[in-house]
Here is the input.
Amino acid sequence: MIRRLLVANRGEIARRVFATCRSMGIETVAVYSDADADSPHVGEADYAVHLPGSAPNATYLRGDLLIAAARKCGADAVHPGYGFLSENADFARAVIDAGLTWVGPSPKAIAMMGSKLEAKQLLADVGVPMLPTAVEPEQVDTFPVLVKASAGGGGRGMRVVRDREALAEAVAAARREAASAFGDGTVFCERYIERARHIEVQIMADSHGNVVPLGERECSIQRRHQKIVEETPSPAVDATLREKLCQAAIAAARAVSYVGAGTVEFLLAPSGEFFFLEMNTRLQVEHPVTECVIGVDIVRLQLHVAEGGTLPFNGSPPLRGHAIEVRLYAEDPAYAWMPSTGTLHRFDVPGAGHAFGPLTAPGLRLDSGVTDGSVIGVHYDPMLAKLIAWAPTRAEAARMLSNALARARIHGVTTNRDLLVRVLRHSAFLSGGTDTGFLDRHPEVFAPLLSSVDAVRLSCLAVALAGAARRGKSAALPGLPSGWRNVPSALQTVVYEGPTGTIEVGYRLDRSNDLAAWAVRRIDPEDIGLPGAALDPTGAPDHPPAAILSATGERVVLDVAGVRLQFAVHEVDGVSFVDSPEGSMTLTELPRYPLPVAEQPEGSLVAPLPGAVGRVLVVPGQRVAAGELLLTVEAMKLEHPVHAPTDGVISDLRVAAGSQVESGALLAVLTPS
Here is the structure.
C-alpha cells in the first residue's frame, strides 16, 4: 500500500493528484522551483522540497533531484503527472531502482511508445491502421505532409508542409525544437489529412491482464497542434466506430503489456477511416471529461493499479451525458498566440464550485494551477486552468461552459477566454462540425466578446465613473461629485490605453450626481493635451442615453435606454479591469501630463515577450531580406521567431544567444535599404 506519494510535477496536475490522495488517506509530497515557491500546490502538500533554480532542466527535469526529494521526505511512491519526466523511461526505471513505487506503466512500455517511429512499426504488426511515413525528407513524394518529432508531444516539433520548397527548413526547425524540448531531434514526415478529427481512446490496464477502454474523446480544436477544447463522447463517433477504435486501442496496449492509465490517439479522416497517431503513456490533461461521463476517478484507479489491485470493472462502463473541457491559457490568440506574463490579480469563475475530481451531478468543475496573486512567468507552459462542464446533452454542456467562461473575472494577463467562448457558441461547433482546421476556417472566433461600439463605450464610461467615485471618497468636500462646478463647463476627461488604442472618456455630473453628459472617442496619442483635443461638452449624438443608478470604486450600475447594466471594476496600480454581461476590458489610465520618454531608433526590433535569446543568425553590417529569420526568443516552451520586417542592413545588434530579455527590450536595429 502506498503511504506517502511524491508528485514529480507542479501546478494544476500536482493539485489534482493531491486531491485524490487526500480522499484515499495517502500523504503527499510536493517539489517546487524558485519560481513556484508561492504556488498553490506547494501549500496543499503535507511536505514540500525545494529544487533550486527556475528553469525546467535545473528543476522538474532533474530525475536525480526528484528521487532525492522522495527519499528525504520518506515517500514510497512517485506520480509523474503529465509533461516533464512523465514519459521518460529512464526516470521510471530510476524510481523503481530506488525501491519506490512508480505510478505508471513499465519503463519498457514507455520506451517502446516513447518513440513514435518505433511505436508505428510495432503496432502496424498487430493490425493498428497507420499513415504513410517517411523518415528522411527525400523520401517524401506526396504533399501535404506533417513533420513530427519522434519523441515527446504537446504539438512541439510539428510543422505542416505543403510543398517541397518549404520542407528542408520545416524539418530543420522541427529538429531544433524537438531537441530543445525533448533532448531528441529525431523527426519524421507523415501524410497530412485535411479536415481530419483528432480522436483518442482512454484505457486502463492492470497487472492481471485486464485492459478496459473508457470511451473516446474528441480533441480536434487545436492551436499549434495542441488541444484547447476536448469533449466526450465525440459527435462524429457512433457505436460501430467506437467499438473499432476501442479494439485498436486494446491491441496497442496489449502489444506492450501496458499497465496503468494511457491514451491511444487516432486521426479520423472524413472518409471514416482512422489511423494511429501515438500512445501517451501517462495521464492526459483532458482526463476530467472522461471522469465525468464514466463516473470514475482515473487518478484513484492509477494508484489502485500501482498497488497491484485489479480494475473494478470488466468492460467499458456506460457513458452518462456529455462533458466538454476547455484549456484556459495565458496567451493572446489575436497576436500569434503570444504567451502573456505578469501577476494574475484576480481569478474567479462563478458557478465552478467543484475542483479536482469527478462530479457527482451535472455541473462545472475547475482544475486550476493558479489563484489570485499568482505570477505567470516565462519558464513553464502558459496553461492557467481547465474548466469542465458536464450536462445531459452536448448543447447544454456547451451553453453552461460558455456562460461560465464569459462571466469569469481574469485580471492581469491576456488569455484565450474570449476565443473559447466564441468557439463554444459557434454554429459549426454546436452542429458537431469540428476538425483540426477549425480555427483556420473560422477567423471570426478571434474577435473579442466586447466587440460592439456601445459596449466598449459603456465599459470605458463605467471605469471613469468608478475612478471618480474613488477620488470622491478622499475629496476635501465629501459628498460633492468629482470635478463639480456650479455652472456648466467642459466635460471631465480621463485618457486610457485600451485594447483598441488610446481612448478619451469625458463626463459631467450635475448637482444631483447624475450623468449630465458623456462622450468617448479614440484619439491619437500625439493629440493628448493639445488645444482642440477636448471632447464636445454636449456629448456625441450617437451615444446611447445613460443614467447612473449607483457608482462606487468597485461597482457601477447604469440605466442605458431603459436597460439596467452592472459593471464590476477592479483597479490595480492605475490599471482597471471591467467586467459586465457585455464582456471584459482592461484600461490603463495615462498621466494627464506625461513625461517625455526616449524614442527607440527607427527600425528597432524588440523582444515580443520576456525570455531567453535562442539563436542569433545575423551580425552587425549584414544585409537581410524582408521575412528573413534574424533571431529567436525562447519562452514558455516555445521558440518565438523575429523576422526582418523589410529589406535592410543590421546596423546594431544588442543581444547574444542566451541573453535574458524583458518584453519590449531592444534586440537589434534594422536600417531599411
